[in-house]
């Protein structure tokens, strides 16, 4: 079946679509009530709230799809604040001509990712616009974090170690090579990182800052953190993890892994004294195997790269369009 | 300035757009922290959570615009559960070619509506896709409701009175006539109804069900409620409020106000014994002046219209496409 405008009219056909696909895959005790808004159990902690829209093209790529991405993105944003992600909404803008089988595959992927992350999809919305069979997804998320928790973009401190949880540029390189119809072994790193983060927090590590390294790449994210905290970040070029495949592609196409987007990598800042402990914990998790200590926070401003030659090069945030519709 | 793909890349241009427009109009103590996710004060009550996307065309119409609509829609969904709306996220999918002045007007309208509703916009997201200068907005919302509150779509009871808070079909008729470039005096009813609802709840009225009468119109909404509650709803044709302008348009174009969408009208079900009290309170509010008792809940199933001739006619939910992109 192809999605048509009537599926977005709010009448009988919308209802069939909701019950036939969304309610079937996302079902849980809260969603099943099908109210105008979901009534949640009381939260155990301070509420944390976020939202992201996803417009990635192509819809399916090695390592993921727009559905998986839409759950991971919001789950990871909550985890970055030290929150346990709990509830998501899922709102769909469908283009006419979209195959309902395609939609079903995407929704199944969202359900599987939500299951892995341990979150419930509790409410949603469906609209239809004229188009060419694509779709956009928005997810909003609520999590809860402990009353005492200072994790923040503004909480970097001099003498923090900067940990990067894995190789840089994989998602970006995957989307780009898919668009160029290149055959490669690249896989998006798209993953829900909340359990990885929780393991570090549960071990009592005094984490100052967590940020997922998405659009704009490490260069942009690190610049924002340095600015928010009033500190300087030094990254060691030789320690930054980049896969051989991404290195090769970057060489050929003139890309810089520092400004390439990721969907399953984080930067964590912890006091130097706790860095080795945090690293060992991360390396023992499913998505943190390649974690490294790749830099440090100092007094000052800006982000600098200590090159293999021993000089410092200023790192600038992404300018220009990067790769459109990467997430 | 025209929006281009670089504004969605997550780098310097995205940051300028966020700070230049979104952060300027939406500013508050929580949003200003610009974290990956907003850390909220503890909620006073049970959390209620919802999300809606908005794709209305045209972007501006008499009585409102996509920005006002996007705030009202989510605020009203929370109010329908008896919750006090508190926090919203605002996520934008911008099409290339969108004028930044147009975006700014829409964002200003969102900020003004949020102010009226008493909610804070605490987080957001911006993506850019290729297109023709349009945009889509998603808002998600969190509210809090009292621990003891049974307001639900499934809580209609026989001997409830059905109150409709104002005239039907205004938003639908406005969007339709704008598309047809007809000159009329029609105005969308788009409005934040949370204060109206709160006034009724604060007076201690035992409200069983609240539903905003949006896409699909009263016919669709009443059908869903009757089904969820296992009851029958009888509506009195002569009591249903419809403006002369909407009546005239419906006559000419063969429309049915029962399936026309609204953006500032609600159905409330309250025990018959409290109906007059609730009505008087509603009629004393800004958006409830034209409220009427228009029907009743009985044992049985389905929705029926008591016609002027004294016969009962079965009311069916909207089938087919209604009016695409009405909200």
What is the CATH class designation of the largest domain in chain A? Alpha Beta
Largest sheet of chain A: 7 strands, mixed
Secondary-structure element pattern of chain A, one letter each: HEEEEHEHEEEHHEHEHEHEEE
Q: Give the overall form of chain A.
A: globular
What is Rg of chain A?
Answer: 20 Å
Average residue pLDDT of chain A? 96
The strands making up the biggest β-sheet of chain A line up spatially as 9-11-8-12-10-13-14
Task: Report the strand count of chain A.
Answer: 14
CATH superfamily of the largest domain in chain A: PurM-like C-terminal domain
Helix fraction of chain A, binned, reads: 25-40%
Name the quaternary structure.
homodimer
How many angstroms does the end-to-end distance of chain A come to?
26 Å
CATH architecture verdict of the largest domain in chain A:
Alpha-Beta Complex
The overall number of domains of chain A is: 2
Name the pair of protein chains with the most residues at their interface, and give those residue counts: A-B, 81 and 81 residues
Which stretches of chain A are poorly predicted, pLDDT < 50 over at least 5 residues? none
Remind me, CATH topology of the largest domain in chain A? Answer: Phosphoribosyl-aminoimidazole Synthetase, Chain A, domain 2
Organism (chains A, B): Succiniclasticum ruminis
Domain PurM-like N-terminal (chains A, B): 35-143
GO biological process, one term (chains A, B): protein maturation
Protein name (chains A, B): Hydrogenase expression/formation protein HypE
């Amino acid at each position: 079946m192809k999605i048509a405008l009537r599926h977005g009219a709010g009448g009988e056909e919308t209802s069939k679509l909701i019950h036939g696909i969304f309610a079937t895959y996302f079902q849980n005790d809260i969603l099943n009530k099908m109210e105008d808004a979901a009534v949640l159990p009381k939260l155990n902690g301070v509420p944390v709230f976020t939202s992201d829209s996803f417009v990635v093209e192509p819809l399916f790529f090695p390592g993921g799809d727009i559905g998986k991405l839409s759950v991971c993105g919001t789950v990871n944003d909550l985890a970055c604040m030290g929150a346990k992600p709990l509830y998501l909404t899922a709102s769909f803008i469908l283009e006419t001509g979209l195959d309902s089988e395609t939609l079903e595959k995407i929704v199944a992927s969202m359900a599987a990712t939500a299951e892995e992350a341990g979150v419930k999809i509790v409410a949603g919305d469906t609209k239809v616009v004229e188009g060419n069979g694509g779709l956009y997804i928005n997810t909003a998320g609520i999590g809860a974090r402990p009353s005492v928790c200072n994790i923040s973009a503004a909480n970097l401190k001099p003498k923090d170690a900067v940990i990067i949880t894995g190789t840089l540029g994989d998602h970006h390189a995957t989307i780009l090579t898919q668009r160029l119809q290149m055959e490669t072994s690249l896989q998006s790193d798209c993953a829900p990182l909340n359990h990885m983060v929780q393991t570090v927090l549960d071990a009592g590590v005094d984490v100052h800052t967590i940020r997922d390294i998405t659009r704009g790449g490490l260069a942009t994210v690190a610049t924002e953190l340095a600015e928010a905290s009033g500190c300087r970040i030094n990254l060691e070029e030789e320690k930054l993890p980049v896969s051989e495949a991404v290195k090769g592609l970057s060489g050929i196409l003139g890309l810089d892994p520092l400004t390439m987007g990721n969907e399953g990598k984080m930067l964590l800042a912890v006091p130097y004294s706790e860095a080795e402990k945090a690293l060992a914990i991360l390396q023992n998790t499913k998505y943190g195997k390649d974690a490294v200590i790749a830099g440090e926070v100092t007094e000052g401003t800006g982000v600098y790269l200590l090159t293999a030659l021993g000089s410092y090069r200023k790192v600038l945030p992404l300018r220009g369009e990067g790769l459109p519709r990467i997430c």
